[in-house]
Amino acid sequence: MKRVCYCYTNEYESVNFGEEHPFKPYRLVLAYELSKAYNLFDNVLIEAPPFCPEEELLKLHDKHYLYVLKKCNNGSKLSEAYFYNLDTSDNPIFPGVYDWSSRVCGASLEGAKKLCDNKIDIYFNIAGGMHHAMADKASGFCYLNDAAVAINYLVNCGKKVVYVDIDAHHGDGVQKFFYETSKVLTISLHESGRFLFPGTGFEYEMGEEEGLGFAVNIPLYPYTDDENYLRAFFEIVPPLISAFNPDVIVTQLGVDCLYNDPLATLNLTTNAFEKIVNYFYSLNLPWLALGGGGYNVANVARAWTLALAIMVEKEISDPIPETVFAKFKKYNVKISNLRDNVAVIDTTMTEKVNRETSRVIEKLKKHLFPYHHLY
């Protein structure tokens, strides 16, 4: 059995982006409670997220942006905040905004350190995966880029890192930080930027200079189902990872790719999600697993519980333990089953989805695979 560390604190319950904001940090509490109800923590180290040292943040983030974000930590709305994409509908200022962001980064950084020191095999930071944050601004509910901070640390430890992002939204921030290096292979599967924020992540975005060929984007058509998603994933991702031969894998396990998420229109079920997480586990690499998007709160709890079960090699059954119902009811979240029982296919879109999936696969094999001596 692998050594697994899970980063969590009950203080997540007090973080509030605003009543109307789709990002609900209490989803982390429910993910933890559901995993606990399934007794998944019996052999898992649980630790609270530390604050990220500012010197680590400054290796990637702009000094004045950090200054402004810290000034906003008490909930004050500075006049210059808007220049950093703060105090917007997506990226509101709220009490503790810097503390929240720093601890998310601190957790991912701690995971990177533990992996570098061979103290654990898998580190799961469910609050992590804030992949849209840029060096000098907030973006897409993300204020600081924990994934990039952790990857940067791993690279400085001499590690080759593969980053795989299955969130419905393109991992644009992480891609941008490592767009010119061959030490990090970034792979993002997401709903096409033609239809969804942030409007990037097309298959022709392949990196620049030394990083040419090391940025991989698999844009998917709306209503892409399990079959097409898995076809794209397994035809592209395993060959590239094998050719790259990484030392560490970092994954962003956003679950807004599931079929009933209110902010995206992919049609994945937990069945595809489990197959992908099983693949990550099978690589037998030091693994930093991060959370990410997911705006159907029940889906977040279900999927990340399934992910943890895979990490600790425990079979869990579909009936939801009754002990968690009161906690879910507190937040008016309904949950009735752990796994999705049927595939979700929009037959009106089948032809377009099949055609677009094939087009992207063929284009990547033709134009990107040769950089990795895959033909």
A few lines on this structure:
The protein contains 11 helices and 8 strands. The protein has helices at residues 26-37, 54-57, 63-71, 97-116, 146-156, 172-177, 226-244, 270-282, 297-311, 325-330, 350-367; strands at residues 4-7, 44-47, 122-125, 161-165, 184-191, 215-220, 248-252, 287-290.
Q: What can you see in these coordinates?
A:
By secondary structure, the protein is an alpha/beta fold. It has a single domain (4-372), classed as Arginase, Chain A (3-Layer(aba) Sandwich), CATH 3.40.800.20. Helix content is 35%, strand content 11%. An 8-stranded parallel sheet has the order 2-1-3-8-7-4-5-6, sandwiched between helices.
List the helices and strands and how they pair.
Layout (H helix, E strand, L loop, with lengths): L3 E4 L18 H12 L6 E4 L6 H4 L5 H9 L25 H20 L5 E4 L20 H11 L4 E5 L6 H6 L6 E8 L23 E6 L5 H19 L3 E5 L17 H13 L4 E4 L6 H15 L13 H6 L19 H18 L8
Parallel strand pairs: 1-2, 1-3, 3-8, 4-5, 4-7, 5-6, 7-8
Helix pairs in contact: 1-9, 4-5, 7-8, 7-11, 8-9
Provide the descriptors you would attach to this structure in a database record:
375 residues; alpha/beta; Arginase, Chain A; eight-stranded parallel β-sheet; 11% strand
